[in-house]
Amino acid sequence: MTLNLSLIAAITVLIACGATLVLERSLTRVLIGFVLLGNGINLLFLVSSGDPGRAPIVGLGEGPMADPLPQAMALTAIVITLGTTAFGLALAYRAWQLTGHDDVQDDLEDDLIRRRADLDSTSTTFDEIDDEMPDEDGSDAHEESSGAVPS
Asked: Which residues of the chain are under the pLDDT cut of 50?
């Protein structure tokens, strides 16, 4: 079997554009990216099947039959892409209803963690336990924190 160079170029462009769009902040662009990725993967399955011209039914047609596995995988990928598209549309519509736009907002906790990392400060709930250094009285810090009575 000879590979069609234009199909491989189309697969490459669909997957590259889809991956780029999935990394955007707009839910509409993310949704279009998932659709492009799904179409690129479906085309990849069908190109990798070998001889796509023959039906995968025994006794139908002359010569060897096509491999039915990539066709079944393409059908499964179509269903998964349809479900992902429906879910993404619901998310984008709900975000547009609530905020008036479909951009993904920053999480406040992520912003707080990023600012603390930039300042190199720890939170107030961080309990620093040092395994190598015993306390002043010679007992281990883990013994006291676990409820064991020091000897």
From this structure: 131, 143-144, 151
Nearest CA to 79 out of 87, 69, 90 is that of 87
User: Does some domain include residue 150?
Assistant: no
pLDDT at 131: 47
Judged by phi (left if over 0) then psi (alpha if -120 to 50, else beta), residue 105 lies in beta
Distant-in-sequence, close-in-space partners of 70: CB < 8 Å, separation ≥ 6:
45, 46, 48, 49
Residue 150's Cβ-side half-sphere holds a number of Cα atoms within 13 Å equal to 12
Q: Indicate whether 94 and 29 sit together in one domain.
A: yes
> Could you tell me the two tokens for 87?
């879910």
- If one counts the domains in the chain, the total is 2
91: containing domain: 5-99
Q: Which pair of structure tokens corresponds to residue 88? A: 């993404």
